[in-house]
Amino acid sequence: ISFNAIDSALSSLKNCQSYINSGMDVATQVALDLVESFNDEEDVNNMEKVMLEYATMDRELSHYIKAFEETINQVKQEKPEDLPDLENLAQEKFLEMESKKSDSDLQKNEKYMYFKDQLKEMKKQYHGNDTIEQIDEDIAVTRSQTNFICPITQMTMKKPVRNKVCGHIYEEEAILEIIQTQKQKKKKVRCPKMGCSHVDVKGSDLVPDEILKRVLDSQKKQ
């Protein structure tokens, strides 16, 4: 049995997932821009609705892909003489997965969680009732309190990423290079921040720190 056509279709679906992820990244940036430019709270809330719609599409697509992959693997293992109706079998698995879904699943979507986290931090920087002068002052205070120096390069960061596990921030290129080097040696990476006890930094634990990047960019312009 040739499954090349099915594998090709699944590959296309996974490409669709990458488009959804890109859409969520754009929606996050738009929401942060709205907060930064003092737009109505309703506009920001609408972006959150967009994020939840994306999360719903992502979950549905994930279920569909998983249902087909499980069906294909099952048929490959059993090797029946007559090929069953793959579409019906996959549809049954898909509906079973969909029946177990809940709204709380969407709140756990990684991109949505990142969106909420960054939005919360941005709102701390830009209070809706503050004047422009107060906000500039707030940013100045934040700058003095935040360490912009990467613990690895000892230089001002350009693309800061935050470790979701321990909360420390590094220059993206520098930490990824260490992770890659240690991976080749089959060794774990200890957090480069002095005094941190986290001993297994992974690339999947790193997320862009959009708020810090914006502060850094603002500082550079001045």
UniProtKB/TrEMBL annotation:
<comment type="similarity">
    <text>Belongs to the NSE2 family.</text>
</comment>
<keyword id="KW-0539">Nucleus</keyword>
<protein>
    <recommendedName>
        <fullName>E3 SUMO-protein ligase NSE2</fullName>
    </recommendedName>
</protein>
<dbReference type="GO" id="GO:0061665">
    <property type="term" value="F:SUMO ligase activity"/>
</dbReference>
<keyword id="KW-0833">Ubl conjugation pathway</keyword>
<dbReference type="GO" id="GO:0016925">
    <property type="term" value="P:protein sumoylation"/>
</dbReference>
<dbReference type="GO" id="GO:0008270">
    <property type="term" value="F:zinc ion binding"/>
</dbReference>
<dbReference type="InterPro" id="IPR013083">
    <property type="entry name" value="Znf_RING/FYVE/PHD"/>
</dbReference>
<dbReference type="GO" id="GO:0000724">
    <property type="term" value="P:double-strand break repair via homologous recombination"/>
</dbReference>
<keyword id="KW-0808">Transferase</keyword>
<dbReference type="GO" id="GO:0005634">
    <property type="term" value="C:nucleus"/>
</dbReference>
<dbReference type="Pfam" id="PF11789">
    <property type="entry name" value="zf-Nse"/>
</dbReference>
<keyword id="KW-0436">Ligase</keyword>
<dbReference type="InterPro" id="IPR026846">
    <property type="entry name" value="Nse2(Mms21)"/>
</dbReference>
<keyword id="KW-0479">Metal-binding</keyword>
<keyword id="KW-0862">Zinc</keyword>
<dbReference type="GO" id="GO:0030915">
    <property type="term" value="C:Smc5-Smc6 complex"/>
</dbReference>
<dbReference type="InterPro" id="IPR004181">
    <property type="entry name" value="Znf_MIZ"/>
</dbReference>
<comment type="pathway">
    <text>Protein modification; protein sumoylation.</text>
</comment>
<keyword id="KW-0863">Zinc-finger</keyword>
<feature type="domain" description="SP-RING-type">
    <location>
        <begin position="135"/>
        <end position="221"/>
    </location>
</feature>
<dbReference type="GO" id="GO:0016874">
    <property type="term" value="F:ligase activity"/>
</dbReference>
